[in-house]
Amino acid sequence: MFTSKPKIRTRTVAVTVKKPTSGSTSATNPSSNSIRKPGAIPTPQNRYNLTPSNKVRTPATQPREPARQSLSVSNTNQRKRKVTPSTPQWASSSDESSDDEDAGSRKRQKTSSSIEPMIHNRCLEPDLQRRIRIEEPDARRQDNGSATSATGEKRRTSMDGKLVHGLQMSRGEWAKDFKPAFPGAGENLQVKLQYPSNSRPERFETVIPYDNSNFNPLDDIYFCMEEMVQHYLPSDLSASLSSEIDGPVRLLKRAVAKNSPQDFEAALNDFNALIGKKLEDKTITKVLDAIHAIPLSLTKRILAQVYQRTVSPYAHLLRKVKGKETTYGELLPAFAHTIFQQTSLNSKSVFVDLGSGVGNVVLQSALQTGADSWGIEIMDNPAKYAIRQASELRARSKLWNISLGPITLQHGDFLDSAEVDDALRRADVVLCNNKVFPQKMNVALLDKFLDLKKGAKIVSLASFVGGGARQGVRNEHSVASLFKEERFDSGTYSVSWTGESVEYFITTKVI
C-alpha cells in the first residue's frame, strides 16, 4: 500500500533589484578600489580642481547610452556638459524681434569655464609663418584684425575695437542682477586684472549674480588667471602658481570664503605685479615667440569673454524665426577647431563663412589660425551682433597680446555680393551650414563653387554633390568629376542645436 506524497506549498516573492548608478562603485566595476559614500560629490576630473561647478551633481538614475563613434574627433567627451558661452543655446533668429522687448525677459548666456583638461588641451599644427604675439609696428596689418590690400590701402573691416570692461556688465541696468561678493563690507570693491600685454588692466566689480546663468565677474577673473598661468609663463613657474594650497586663484577664493575684501585685493595685486614683472623682463615675450599655435582652451576663453559682453545680454532677440529658411545654428569652438585642423587652415589661408550668424566661426578663424576671415549674414540681428563681437575681439585680443588675422563681416545675401564672390575665388576653406537650405539655394551655391580654385575645400552639414543639389547646375554630368566629397561625424556636443553627433561633409575641388 502506497501513501500519497505530501504537497509542498510554494510562494513567489518579488525582489526589487536596485539598478547601479553611473557613479557607483560595485561589482560591475571590479577595478575600483574605493567606496564612495552615498550623496558624495565626485572630484572633478579637471586640471583645475579649484574651479568646480556651482551646481551640485546628482547621480544619474539610468545608465547613459554610449556616445557615437566619431570619425573626426579622437576623444569624445561622454559626460554631459554645459553649452559653451560663446554660442547661443537656441538655433534660430528673426529680424522681427524688436529691441523694445520686455527687458525682464533678458537672460544672459550661462557662463562656465572654457578650460579643458590637460589631455584635451589641444592645439592646431604649429604655423611657423605666424607670429602669435602682437608686434608693433606691423606693416602688413595696420591694426589688429584689419587687412591691407596689395596697393597699401586699408580695407574696411567694420568698426575699430572697443573694450567692454567687466565692470560695465554689473552696472547700470544690470546692477539689480547682482549681490555683493563681500557682504557687510560697504561699497562693492572694484579691482583690476592685468593681462599679459602692456594694455591697461580690465576693471571688475566684486559681485556675484543671483542667477548662476548670468555673467560672473569673479569666475571671469579666475578663468583668465588660469589661462595666463598655463600658457604665458615658463612651465616651472606655471606649476608652482597652479598650487591648490597657495596658488593665486586659491588665495582669491579663500578670501571670498573668509569675506575678506582686503585679502582678495592683496592677492590680485600680487598676481598683477607678477605679470607686470614678467612682461618687463621679457619672459612672456619669449614664451609667446616660442609657440606657433594657440591652445583651444585659450581660444575658448577669449571667445567666451567676447560673447558674454556683446551678444549674451541680448540673446533673447535671436530666439524667434519667421520660417525654416531663417533658422540658423552655430558650430561650437571645439567643432570649428576640428574643421580647421582637417582643412589645414593657417595664417596664409582665406576662410569664408556663408551665413555666418553672429560671426562666431569667423572670429575663431581669425583668432586661432590668423587666416583672412570673411563672413556674410542676411538677417539683421545676427549681422549686427557679429559686428559688435568683431569690435570686442579686436580690443580683447590686444589685452591677451595675440595678433588676429584680417576680419571682414558683411550684412547681405551671399548669392548677391561681388566682394564675397571675389573672396570665394581666392578661398581655401568655405564653411556653409546648409542643413535647412532649400534645394534651390543649394543649387545656386554649387553653381558658385564651380569657380573655386583647385584644392579649395567646402565644409557643409548637408551634401552638395551627393544629393539633389547637383541637378540643374551648368553641366550636371561633370559635377562628380570636379569634386571629391568625404563624410564625417562631429561627435557629441559640437553644435548649438543638439547634443547629438551630426554628420558633415568636406568637399574638395579637384579640378
UniProtKB/TrEMBL annotation:
Gene Ontology biological process: DNA damage checkpoint signaling; DNA repair; methylation; subtelomeric heterochromatin formation
Organism this protein belongs to: Pleomassaria siparia CBS 279.74
Bias (Basic residues) ranges: 1-10
Compositionally biased region (Basic and acidic residues): 122-143
Reaction(s) the record says it catalyses: L-lysyl(79)-[histone H3] + 3 S-adenosyl-L-methionine = N(6),N(6),N(6)-trimethyl-L-lysyl(79)-[histone H3] + 3 S-adenosyl-L-homocysteine + 3 H(+)
Record-listed S-adenosyl-L-methionine binding positions: 328-331, 351-360, 377, 413-414
UniProt protein name: Histone-lysine N-methyltransferase, H3 lysine-79 specific
Keyword Cytoplasm belongs to the record: no
Subcellular location, record wording: Nucleus
Record region (Disordered): 1-159
PROSITE patterns from the UniProt entry: DOT1
Residue ranges occupied by any DOT1 domain in the UniProt entry: 189-511
